[in-house]
Amino acid sequence: MMIELLRELEAALLKRNPGIAPALLPGVPADEIRTQLKRLGIKGNIEPIVQLYGWHNGAVVGKECEARRLGIAPPVVSDIPEKTLEFMRGLGHKIDGPVKCYNSFLFFRFDSSIRWIKHWKKFAATVPSSAKLALRFVPFISTTNSGEDLALDVTPEGNGRIVLIGANEKQVRLAYASFEEFLRDLIRANESNEVLSCVTSPGELLELEPIIVVKKPKPKTGKTIPVTNKSFVLRTDFSDDSAWEALKAKLHRTDDELSPDLDFISDPAFADLMPETLRSALPEDSDHSYGLIADRAALMEKDNPVLAVDLSKKKVKILRVSAEALAEVENNLSVGNMDFREFAKAVDEDGVFRGFRESESGAWERPQGPALSLSVAASAPMRDAGAT
Predict the structure, then answer these.
(1) Is 19 exposed, middle or buried (0-12, 13-18, 19+ CB in 10 A)?
(2) What digits encode the pLDDT tens for the residues 218-241?
(3) Strands 352-353 and 317-321
(4) How close are the terminal C-alpha atoms of the chain, in Å?
(5) % of the chain beyond a pLDDT of 70
(6) What is the pLDDT of residues 348-359, one digit of tens each?
(7) Each residue of 151-201: pLDDT tens digit?
(8) What is the DSSP letter of 245?
(9) d(Cα 120, Cα 127) in Å, to the nearest integer?
(10) What's residue 148's pLDDT?
(11) Residues 356, 91: contact at Cβ < 8 Å?
């Protein structure tokens, strides 16, 4: 039955999105799928995943193409707000008329599924949300904008249900009672060119108990950065109060609607805090993916290069951003429109990002200096205040 449904799905998918045909990869041998899942401790009802990835090993589609936008299921299409379009035009993008936003459904490869399983298992001992997902779910489809994942529940109590895991991994909703029900709805959606029913009719929130016991985090010895819903600027140099006030005024321009939305934190308890320890100073439940530090260089150097700290990955990365360009960085990072690496590639020779430049033709381009890696760009030598 499952094989017949997958064949029916392929016919409906290629009729709606013919461009995805060359992107569908050959299937993975069943024994290889079972072996990899077993090594990771995934037990129970894994046969739907074996059948799925035996059919095709995901679909590798290039960025910004029609096949990617259409995905393996009809995308959720919405209008981009005019305010966002105006901001993008201000960055040099040529945009005429209304623009549609596609929240597409992408069928990722089996090795990507394995990476997610490993990630949840690795952090299950310290992160409660990962503990609830580890050894329970095998993800196979992700959305491009909302950051949600469809996954199979392999546990006995799950009875083969399909769930929708939220972008922050803290919410899990029932999507379909079984994998077969999901396939039938996926076929229907492709044949009728309508979105999946799990989008139009979200299921109930699931209360999950972790399979891996979560260890209680060790109490922190230092002070914790206050909880803030905005991007924050943490002061770590207390040698000049007037310089701090001047930087705050420079960053928070009330007459500019594109001014970065910031909370300013000034507490001597964080004096000389290093970017490598910023994450440990945040509250346990903090969801900040980056932070901004006002150190001595930010207060005293020309252009006030604030230290931006990328907290989205295990290894902390840093980038210097001039005060004038901080709005461009913060506005894009806060909505996930761009990431650190894009700004790092556009730094000047001294390792400071000062914004994307406008060429004589009117197009916006990156500086033509040497290509710098993120670590080099952020740590390029900066003169100490008062040095000769």
Answers:
(1) middle
(2) 445 578 998 888 899 999 999 999
(3) parallel
(4) 78
(5) 87
(6) 888 899 987 654
(7) 999 999 999 999 999 987 779 999 999 999 999 999 999 999 999 999 999
(8) H
(9) 9
(10) 93
(11) yes
Residue 55 three-state SS:
helix
Average pLDDT score over residue span 326-348? 84
Domain locations in the chain?
A: 2-200, 231-379
Q: Which two tokens stand for residue 128?
A: 């409660």
Paired tokens of 14: 């290629």
Q: Classify domain 231-379 by CATH number.
A: 3.40.50.800
As a CATH number, domain 2-200 is 3.40.1580.10
Which pairs count as long-range contacts for 61-70, CB under 8 Å and 24+ apart, including other chains? Answer: 61/20, 61/23, 61/106, 65/19, 66/19, 67/17, 67/19, 67/20, 67/23, 68/104, 68/106, 68/144, 69/102, 69/104, 70/16, 70/17, 70/19, 70/20, 70/104
190 Cβ contact partners less than 8 Å away, ≥ 6 residues apart: 9, 12, 13, 15, 16, 17, 73, 74
Q: What is the model's pLDDT at position 362?
A: 42
Inter-CA distances, 153 with 37, 116, 178, 378, Å: 13, 14, 9, 42
178, amino acid identity: S
Query: Which strand (E) or helix (H) includes residue 364?
Result: strand 364-365
Residue 256's pLDDT band (boundaries 50, 70, 90)? Answer: low
Give the whole-angstrom CA distance, residue 153 versus residue 159: 7
